[in-house]
Amino acid sequence: MASLFSSNPTLASNPSYLFSQAPHNLAAGNKEHGFYPYTDNGGSTLGITGNDFAIIAGDTRSTSGYSINTRYSPKVFRIGGDDETGEGAHIILSVVGYAADGTALKERLNAIVKMYKYQHGKKMTVKACAQRLATILYGKRFFPYYVTAILGGLDEDGKGALYSYDPVGSYEREQCRAAGAAASLIMPFLDNQVNFKNQYLPGTGVGHDLQARQTEPLPLHEVEQLVRDAFTSATERHIEVGDGLQMFVVTKGGIEEKYFPLKRD
Amino acid sequence: MTSIGTGYDLQNSVFSPDGRNFQVEYAVKAVENGGTCVGIRCKDGVVLAVEKIITSKLLKPGANKKIATVDRNVGIVSSGLIPDGRHFVSRARDEAASWRSTYKAPIPLAALAGRLGGYVQAYTLYSSVRPFGVTAIVGGWDSAGALGVDGQVGSGPSAGAGGKIPGAKAGGPALYMIEPSGSYWGYYGAATGKGRQTAKSELEKLGLASGNLSLEAGVKEAARIIYVAHEDSKDKEFELEMSWISSMDGPTKGRHQEVPKDMLEEAEKLAKTALEGEDEEETTAPEGETMEE
Amino acid sequence: MNHLPQAWGRPRDDVYGPYDASYLQSRLPQTHTQSPIVTGTSVLAVKFKDGVVIAADNLASYGSLARFTDVKRLRPFNSKSIVGIGGDVSDMQYLDRLLNSLDVTENYSSTGHSLNAKNLHTYLSKVMYKRRSDINPLWNQMLVAGLDGNDEPFLSSVDLLGTTFSSPTLATGFGAHLAQPLLRKVADDESKVADITRERAVEAVKECMKVLFYRDARSLDRYSIAVVTKEGGLELKEDEQLEGQSWAFAETIRGYGRTQEA
Predict the structure, then answer these.
(1) Residue C11 above 90 pLDDT?
(2) What is the mean pLDDT of residues C221-240?
(3) Strands annotated E in B24-133
(4) Strand partners, C47
(5) If 0-12 CB within 10 Å is exposed, 13-18 middle and 19+ buried, where does residue A108 land?
(6) What DSSP character marks residue C249?
(7) Residues C91-138: tens digit of each pLDDT
(8) Is C71–B104 a contact, with Cβ atoms under 8 angstroms apart?
(9) Cβ-based contacts of B104 with chain C (< 8 Å)
């Protein structure tokens, strides 16, 4: 670098050195960055709400390419509870995509929800938590958490609440949402079975006269079966989904965790 | 202290006309009232011991340690102002860590003592600071064999150029004492605090220069000396805290550690019986304060 | 002349106009590791009834060159846990020094409790995730083996992206493809771990080391193996020789210049 400035400029208007003329023996073109800071750990998650409950479920497989890292790596977490047991939590979060970002996001949200409780002496509402999660994601807009998050709990009226996100914090409250590798397999199934899309009442007419079946909140046991069916089917058709199904059910009685084995092939 | 009241003692870094820095001498006074500390450099290790005066019955026994670990192989104990001692230890830890990050090896005791001496000395140079109110005893073991650098993964050539010289010895036990002036010396046996005079005369009787005292015997002697030195302030209860460092193939495997509980209790028991025996002989008259160096 | 030393030796402003300081580049762009240079290959580990066994060979490769053949890739931590490291060797040495300094600071106080393997894994995963987030990764994948806070066997992985996962058997690098399927025959589920003896686990790991030596061109038949149990603590052997090698199958290979029966 020193030699660059040692040449004697004779006139200000006629510099003897130009950066454009710099002798460069480097290979032409920009060298591509060798490190890509993201990966995809596969798997899928799914959330459905009912009148007085919310369910979030996820498979427990973690992958790297065609390899299975482990058959048990949870994607759904209790938020705002005790560190070891999760006791006292009232919100659940699922993260799917890049698992390391998912863990980091979960830990951040968990810390924030706990701090909220310590500072204000009351639990954070799911609505407030949902907005806060969007803020966290958006705050890393230019180096995003590469995850699709689903947040669940009960709202101020005790009704099931479910919020779904994109990696940069765009979010909305929904009845149901599938995310992750098999989202495109599960979501249409949910549209049909939860929101009764493309279901018509028989004998109500032809063409446009056909009346759509009205949606109604589903009971818990039916939703649970829907979730299990969704994952067994996704396991059949998607290589990154399988091994185990973990399910969190939020009701006014608290959070219940369930586990069902899935095919491990 | 004839010069008191002449004004030369009111500011640090200022000499009196007869060439003394009074603030440093006052710092020494703070040390002279601290709990007695003893360090013994034995042939196969170093022992540190401190008389911890119990200032309140509400203090948990065995808690509030006064001997600190600086690096794996170094320990420090100090008499005087406790917070000053803590800061001193913190500086020692920084120095040891910085040495490691530069040289990828533990700091030699001589180098650590030098850096700490320099640090303490700097606090005698400025009017904006006061000198350290502690005298610290630094004990450790410099590895005797060739040590791999930190992070080394291979074993290197087994013979020939770059190979290790079998049987080559270096290092060994090291003991230094650093005073508020920043001056530091290497010792066979060091003592500071309230009972230092008694402790020093006891240390002198051990014949440490001949290098015959074993580490195990040193532990017992250190305990006894603390008990003997405590005789002058018998009315106060105290707790004995001790640590030791041996070579790699000794009992602590080159690490600075607390002396194990059973060994400490054994040493205390021996110290108490030794004291009782001494009382019967009725020989030791309390020594008067003699001139300090 | 200007009295300020900063101006000495520079073209005079009154003659040449003010100096364009933007040409003074005070520092070059910061550069980070783009790819590993000297590398270690697979690390294998299996949990068993009362502990964990972990192994890695002693080779550090420079591309396809077997550069260093006495490299210890199992790094013990506070005599209770062990970390097996694959990937860049210089980053491994950095991590080793980091763990060294962690051990020193942990020993400042002698409170009696020390970091267990689970704590160590959490620490390492935060280090790795921080470095990947700074786009300055430590190019390694590690297995942390030891005991958790309840003295139960612990085994977990972390890589250069900060991805973490845990399983009864784990293998990094080439081993993830070759050894992991074989190890899963021994224990494919956490519930099976209680039935596996130490002997079975050690045998499985050694067998996999052999398979890897046959098929991984960046591997060596000298390796390190460690067992961590509650009773025995950490038992580490750093210069083991692969036993029972059989190259008889090589006789059956055709091609690469060998076309007919010998």
Answers:
(1) no
(2) 97
(3) 37-42, 45-53, 68-71, 74-80
(4) C52
(5) middle
(6) G
(7) 999 999 999 999 999 999 877 788 999 999 999 999 999 999 999 999
(8) no
(9) 97
Q: Are strands B45-53 and B238-246 parallel, antiparallel or unpaired?
A: antiparallel
| Owner of token pair 């008499």 | B79
Distance between CA atoms of A181 and A62, rounded to whole angstroms? 11
Alpha helices in B33-108 (DSSP H): 82-103
Cβ contact (<8 Å) for B151 and C100? yes
Whole-number Cα distances in Å, C140 to B201, C87, C91, C205: 58, 4, 7, 21
Tokens of A113: 């929800």
Residue bearing the bigger pLDDT, B202 or B145 = B202
Residue B100: burial class (beta carbons within 10 Å; 0-12, 13-18, 19+): buried
Give me the count of residues in chain A: 265
* Residue C134 distance to chain B (closest CA, Å): 22
Q: Which H or E element spans position A109?
A: helix A99-120
The count of other CB atoms within 10 Å of the CB of residue B205 is 10
Between CA A6 and CA A8 the distance in angstroms is 6
For residue A54, with 0-12 CB atoms within 10 Å meaning exposed, 13-18 middle and 19 or more buried, which class applies? buried
Q: What is the mean pLDDT of residues B137-158?
A: 84
Helix C117-133, helix A99-120: angle, nearest 10: 100
Q: Which residue has the tokens 């530091």?
A: B184
Which residue in C260, C231, C218 sits closest to C151, CA to CA?
Answer: C231
pLDDT, position C2: 62
Strand partners, B184: B178
Q: Which amino acid is residue C120, in one-letter code?
A: L
Contact at 8 Å (CB) between A64 and A75? no
Which tokens is B135 given? 């005298």
- Answer whether B45's CB lies under 8 Å from B218's CB: yes
Sequence-separated (6 or more) residues with CB below 8 Å from residue C4 = none
Q: Tell me which residue has tokens 């009764």.
A: A196
Please state, in angstroms and rounded to a whole number, the distance separating the CA atoms of residues C118 and C123. 9
pLDDT tens-digit map of B53-85: 999 999 999 999 999 999 999 999 999 999 999
Residue C47 contacts residue C187 (beta carbons within 8 Å): yes
User: B224: distance to nearest CA of chain C, Å?
Assistant: 24
DSSP-assigned beta bridge partners for residue C154 = C146
Tell me the three state secondary structure of residue A208: helix
From the list B72, B96, B150, which residue is nearest C97 (CB)?
A: B150
Burial class (CB in 10 A: 0-12, 13-18, 19+), B104: middle
A83 touches A106 (CB < 8 A): no
Question: Is residue C33 annotated as a catalytic residue, yes or no?
Answer: yes
Chain A: residue whose CA lies nearest to C164: A100
Q: How far apart are CA A136 and CA A169, in angstroms?
A: 7
The residue whose two tokens read 């070059």 is C28
C193 φ, ψ (degrees, to nearest 5)? -55, -40
Instruction: Compute CA C58 distance to the chain's CA centroid, rounded to the nearest angstrom.
Output: 12
Q: What is the distance of C-alpha C64 from the center of its chain?
A: 19
The alpha carbon of A246 is separated from its chain's Cα centroid by a whole number of angstroms, namely 15
User: CB neighbours of C10 closer than 8 A, spacing ≥ 6?
Assistant: C19
- CA within 13 Å, CB half, A236: 8
Q: Where are the beta strands (DSSP E) in chain B?
A: 37-42, 45-53, 68-71, 74-80, 134-142, 172-178, 184-186, 189-192, 238-246, 256-258
Residues C45, C173: contact at Cβ < 8 Å? no
Q: Please state, in angstroms and rounded to a whole number, the distance separating the CA atoms of residues B214 and B211.
A: 8
CB contact under 8 Å between B69 and C71, yes or no, is no
Report which DSSP code applies to A194: T
Residues of chain A with pLDDT under 50: 1-26, 31-33
Distance separating alpha carbons of residues B78 and B68, to the nearest angstrom: 9
